[in-house]
């Protein structure tokens, strides 16, 4: 006779060794050294999360997309002279149109229907680069078209490097809009082999980024001035796609981004940034979708991410150089987005030495056999930094390859540095997951455990391995369930 099994409709119980492996020393003490598990969310919990999200409304009220004068500067006009043959570089024509719009007090620089080849585009204040429906900006794959070198940030380290494909430095009221296509044209034949792995097209004997990356980090550690960190020609550090730098009032809206050399949208040290209704599809190495870095008051909404790396990765500088500036990413709202493929859906790190705080994620959908994790925190004792006040609600996770929620203090260099990271006050509410090896994978340090993690009304289905919880100071689960939808008999016994 079969007997009822506790597997059916059970609360996640971290006491059960067959369900979760964890360090009892690092987990909040409760019965059997287990984290607190409550049967139902209380009115107090709901009130608390409402207070968190009231702060999001305050942030949203500050984020305003820039407006532009009703003046158009069409790049095919006689005074600019762009040709839509997909071959002739329109770089000079676009530059002239941007300069004219800027001099006139602002307006739209219009890319009409057609295919326009171009090199680097540098935006100026009060200019909206409008890529019309049916238009494609096809970016050159010749590195010389991204010279001279510009002041940039590469993997969290400032240097003089190749110009991003679309760049702005210390500008205000700038935008890239429209229903057209931005095609970086990166492939395994041009930019991607510089990563130095076979997946990106690299073969033995080909140049790659490793030597320059190491040298840049050494120069940062030595305090070499940024202007003397020269990493353009001969360094093989790929340019970002869109990078506004030290800019205010930025809008990226409506465009489709394809085939990027490196990260797609990378606002650095910016304030008041809106990314809305963008479609990103690019599967090269380090093809992160949107990486706000040391930026504040950022809204990312209604965007589709289909990427070769993290969909969204919040950053604030790497190691010594990140601590030199010591500017966090803060007040970031992510909502109504869809994450298809990538290493992580919403990620904080790993270039996070300046810290991150006040991050709000809601109403997002994440699912793919090729999406590794839904929510991820990646750092180590070289990065350091404080990550705090991360609030997630109403997220649907269909399928991930590794873990639904992952926080790991052993990323990349691992625990070999002197700057312990801090992660605290993470609240996840109303998250459902359909399939994952692990529900949770949380690894802190014994001396510096992961801080408070709170899960409310979360459901993890299709989980095949125990969660890993090592050195976590406080984890509380309220009305959380695992594997309630597994194939069972009427008593909940697993069916073979």
Automatic annotation (TrEMBL):
InterPro entries: GH28_Enzymes, Glyco_hydro_28, PbH1, Pectin_lyas_fold, Pectin_lyase_fold/virulence
Alphabetical list of SMART domains matching this protein: PbH1
A Pfam short name: Glyco_hydro_28
Listed GO biological process terms: carbohydrate metabolic process
Entry's family note: Belongs to the glycosyl hydrolase 28 family.
PANTHER family (UniProt xref): PECTIN LYASE-RELATED, PLASMIN AND FIBRONECTIN-BINDING PROTEIN A
Protein name as it appears in the record: Glycoside hydrolase
């Amino acid at each position: 006779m079969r007997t009822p099994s506790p597997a059916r409709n059970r609360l996640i119980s971290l006491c059960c060794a067959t369900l979760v492996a964890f360090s009892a020393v690092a987990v909040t003490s409760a019965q059997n050294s287990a984290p607190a598990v409550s049967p139902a969310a209380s009115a107090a919990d709901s009130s608390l999360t409402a207070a968190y999200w009231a702060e999001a409304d305050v942030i949203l009220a500050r984020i305003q997309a820039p407006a532009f004068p009703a003046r158009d500067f069409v790049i095919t006009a006689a005074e600019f002279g762009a040709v839509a043959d997909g071959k002739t570089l329109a770089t000079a024509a676009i530059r002239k149109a941007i300069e004219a719009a800027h001099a006139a007090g602002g307006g739209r620089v219009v890319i009409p229907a057609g295919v326009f080849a171009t090199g680097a585009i540098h935006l100026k204040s009060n200019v909206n680069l409008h890529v019309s429906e049916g238009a494609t900006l096809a970016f050159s794959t010749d590195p010389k078209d991204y010279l001279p070198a510009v002041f940039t940030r590469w993997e969290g380290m400032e240097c003089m490097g190749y110009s991003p494909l679309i760049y702005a430095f210390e500008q205000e009221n700038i935008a890239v809009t429209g229903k057209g296509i931005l095609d970086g044209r990166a492939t395994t034949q041009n930019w991607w082999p510089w990563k130095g792995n076979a997946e990106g097209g690299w073969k033995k004997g080909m140049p790659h980024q490793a030597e320059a990356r190491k040298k840049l980090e050494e120069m940062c550690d030595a305090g070499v001035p940024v202007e003397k960190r020269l990493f353009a020609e001969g360094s093989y550090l790929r340019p970002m796609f869109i990078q506004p730098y030290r800019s205010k009032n930025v809008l990226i809206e409506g465009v489709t981004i394809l085939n990027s050399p490196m990260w797609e949208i990378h606002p650095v040290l910016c304030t008041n940034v809106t990314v809305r209704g963008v479609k990103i599809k690019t599967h090269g190495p380090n093809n992160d979708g949107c990486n706000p870095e040391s930026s504040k008051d950022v809204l990312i909404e209604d965007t589709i991410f289909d990427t070769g790396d993290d969909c969204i990765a919040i950053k604030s500088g790497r190691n010594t150089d990140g601590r030199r500036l010591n500017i966090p990413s803060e007040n970031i709202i992510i909502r109504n987005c869809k994450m298809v493929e990538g290493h992580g859906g919403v990620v904080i790190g790993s270039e996070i030495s300046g810290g991150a705080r006040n991050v709000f994620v809601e109403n997002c959908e994440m699912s793919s056999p090729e999406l590794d994790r839904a929510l991820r925190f990646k750092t180590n004792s070289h990065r350091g930094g404080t990550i705090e006040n991360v609030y997630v609600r109403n997220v649907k996770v269909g399928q991930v390859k590794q873990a639904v929620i992952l926080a790991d203090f052993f990323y990349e260099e691992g625990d070999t540095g002197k700057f312990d990271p801090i992660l605290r006050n993470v609240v996840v509410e109303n998250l459902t997951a359909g399939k994952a090896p692990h529900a949770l994978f949380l690894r802190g340090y014994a001396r510096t455990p992961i801080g408070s993690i709170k899960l409310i009304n979360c459901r993890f289905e299709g989980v095949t391995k125990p969660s890993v919880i090592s050195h976590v100071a406080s984890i509380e689960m309220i009305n959380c369930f695992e594997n309630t939808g597994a194939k069972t008999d009427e008593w909940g016994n697993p069916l073979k």
